Amino acid sequence: MGLRVQQMDTGKNYSPEEYWADLAERYENVDDSGLAPILHPQTPKWFNRAFDELQFRAFQRALKIANFPAGSRILDIGCGTGRWVRRYAELGYSPTGVDATFRMLVIARARQTRAPMVVGSASNLPFSDASFDGLSDITVVQHIPYDLQGAALREMVRILRPGGRMILFELVQGKDPHIFPRTSVGWIREVESCGAKLIKCFGQEFLLPDRLFVRLAGAVSGRRGDHISRVQLSSPDSISHNPTALRRIYWQLRHITVLSSACIEPVVARICPLSLATHAVFVFRKI
Which residue segment(s) compose the domain that 223 sits in? Predict the structure, then answer.
């Protein structure tokens, strides 16, 4: 039986399995990159490309910190449509992907990579102890309810060899029915309790101009919104079919704020505290 959690603020049941399966089915053919089902499915294509590029920058920085030797066996947990598995292969590593949603892996196989990919839950990984030199979890555990996050993190540490590195990108602020963020200190404490030691962490996705614009748009529209929940100025399903003039203006302006935010992100990340970021990137070593 799939996991189902009662959400206190919405009164709706959240099932991770159903949530991701629905996204894979509904947004499989929205774009050739396979980004829509795993990033922001109700947004323009340029928006997902911009965020993928931002995450790739952070990914490259984390790889330098992790310092995986060429050919390392690396597991990408919650690999979705395979974008990180593909990139690991391009960089000379030996990647494997695992995801709980079979349809996501079908998309990955068709569009992204020929690397091994298997169906499996983060809280019950289908691999033996110490099977991998490294692993990555990129915005995965943040979608698992709090009482089950510890089990998933313990599984990640279990399948790492001693001294193996793990890269985590996780949300440190935001609100949505399907996300369960922690503070950076909270993530570090949770992972270290599972038998790993922090090497380094840094903030990701500060995007201050864009976040300011979204808050202003939310105030004008009378709807509360922030960078995570994204103000919706019309029906979510109308973005490709019948967008209103207001929605078109919103996304035209946001195109400017997102790209300008991305341009200044390296400077902002150097001068702003991690607490202002929406995500944090952690690199751990298994003890």
Answer: 208-270
